[in-house]
Amino acid sequence: MLAVENNLEKAKNLVKETKLEHIAIIMDGNRRWAKEHMLPSAMGHKKGVDALKTIVKASHSFGVKYLTLYAFSTENWNRKQDEVDFLMGLLASTIKNELKELHQNEVKLRFIGNIKGLNAELQGILADAENTTKNNKGVNLQIAVNYGARNELTQAVQRIIEDNVPKEAVTEELLQSYLYTKDIPNPDLLIRTGGEMRISNYLLWQIAYSELYITPKYWPEFNEEALLISIEEFAKRQRRYGS
Questions:
Q1: pLDDT digits (tens, 9 = 90+) for 115-145
Q2: H/E element holding 50?
């Protein structure tokens, strides 16, 4: 118990000292975890939901204000149809089953991505979750669904053109105001689980100066201790922003 309390205090102090506001995570490795445990992929995805719940709670305990998780990319539609159907169903059931507890814990939920590309029932579930939690003051949890950074940037440019913005008025600040994340700070830390050394079309604009942390742990294995280790690594970095 003492070790747990010490780790919690250490994490809170590091978050405060480093001014760590926003963590983004590429949750990778569900299927590989399942394969290594000789289980079907579905079990890996279900264990991934458990890890998600753990990390949301840990982020709240550590004092992290913003958490953005990559749940389903625009490229994930290319997976086998039965897996896509399972993932969409898992997302719907998870949100419905966990919404009450998330709301009680003051989590503010938002879903970023091309939400209109999802089926009407799922869109309704996500909209209800956002509406239910919109006034909460705890962790701001963004879940990226049907999300691709290139698509996000393309749509932003299209909307700028539709709004007849003159060329000389287009600045970095203006373009950012057309992104899904326009009203939250850019990630300080990007974590990728599963050991892969790539960004996978995730928050390409927003992570321009984020610190990257790649862990070989698969997402179902990622827990409070793993999150603390990533924050400890972040605390060692000297952020220069190109200067």
A1: 999 999 999 999 999 999 999 999 999 999 9
A2: helix 41-62
Single-letter amino acid code for the residue at 65: K
DSSP 142: E
Which residues are catalytic, by number? Answer: 28, 76
SS3 category, 80: coil
> Rounded to whole angstroms, how far apart are CA atoms 192 and 55?
13
Quick check: 9 pLDDT over 80?
yes
- The CA distances from residue 238 to 30, 124, 189, in Å, are 32, 43, 12
3-state SS, residue 57: helix
The β-bridge relationship of strands 211-214 and 140-147 is: unpaired
- 59 by Cβ neighbours in 10 Å (0-12 / 13-18 / 19+) ranks as buried
Cα–Cα distance, 155 to 180 (Å, whole number): 10
Look-up of token digits 């070790």: 3
How far is the C-alpha of 111 from the C-alpha of 72, rounded, in Å? 11
- Nearest 5°: the CA angle 170, 173, 179 is 95
